[in-house]
Design brief:
289 residues, Rossmann fold, 2 domains, globular, binds nicotinamide-adenine-dinucleotide
Amino acid sequence: MNDPLHTAPGARIIDGKALSDAVRGSLRARIAASGRRVRLDAILVGDDRAAGIYAMNQAKTCEEVGIEYVLHRLPAGATYDDIAGRVLLLNSEDGVRALMLHLPLPAGIDAERIQSLISPEKDVEGVNPANIGNVVYGRRSLVPCTALASLEMIESTGIELRGKRCAVIGASNIVGKPIAVLLMREEATVHSTNKFTPALPELARECDVIVAACGVPRLVKRDWVKPGAVVIDVGINRIDGPDGKKITVGDVDFESVRSVAGWISPVPGGVGPMTVAMLLRNVVEAALR
Ligand code: NAD
């Protein structure tokens, strides 16, 4: 392979792009074999440029695997009642089986309150608290996509999680906490950590798995990592590069950590593409259930 990521010595790379392509391929086959229509309905409020581009890309990604994409646009002046009303309407439609809400919402509208209105069985982003509760209880449910992506990537290394120590760095409701719970479900011993955790580098260094999801560029350094550990980098941070241009980096100092870790996921090309694949998988699960 020509990719320097795959030829340099040190940790093996967990290639999120390749894993994601494999998932998409199997979803495409599953949809075709089902003989059924699979559709994702998404709500986009206002004219935030990044959200609009994301929705366009999403439409393309869905099309590639055979998922129909229906975008419901609401104007920037939409009120809480307008958005909630649309969610409730789509909840009630039988033809809508997979539903998500693009963020951001207009200022002053509580996104979590709207998300909690999405029917749990249609909530493909796993943002309704009922779905998080189901994750805790180990019930079949739609799991938040980034958490699912992180677990799949860890499992792709072949590591047996039972009995292993894991550090999850960052404990947000939508990323860090669900990852910690998924690892607990595998009977790993899980340290859920946050910005107030004392002696975090020492704690991380005792762990077989580190998942970094804190939003601090390159926080996890070489001396935080036990030799051979699996390191998953969830972070997506835009920082100034050496030539002043913006670059995307993770929460792990990739260059130093790769020399000690056993496995490492890069940014970009790691958890990001796999998160998209997990959303598609949730859509297919919701639609074909
Ligand atoms: P957040 O700001 O909601 O939460 C950050 C968490 O990290 C908090 O629990 C905080 O206490 C903890 N934290 C902050 N500084 C810390 C420090 N120095 N040491 C230890 N813990 C610290 O962020 P989030 O929404 O959970 O996102 C985390 C990162 O993941 C961001 O970089 C975000 O861009 C990225 N992200 C990636 C994806 C993906 O698909 N790859 C999806 C969502 C978020």
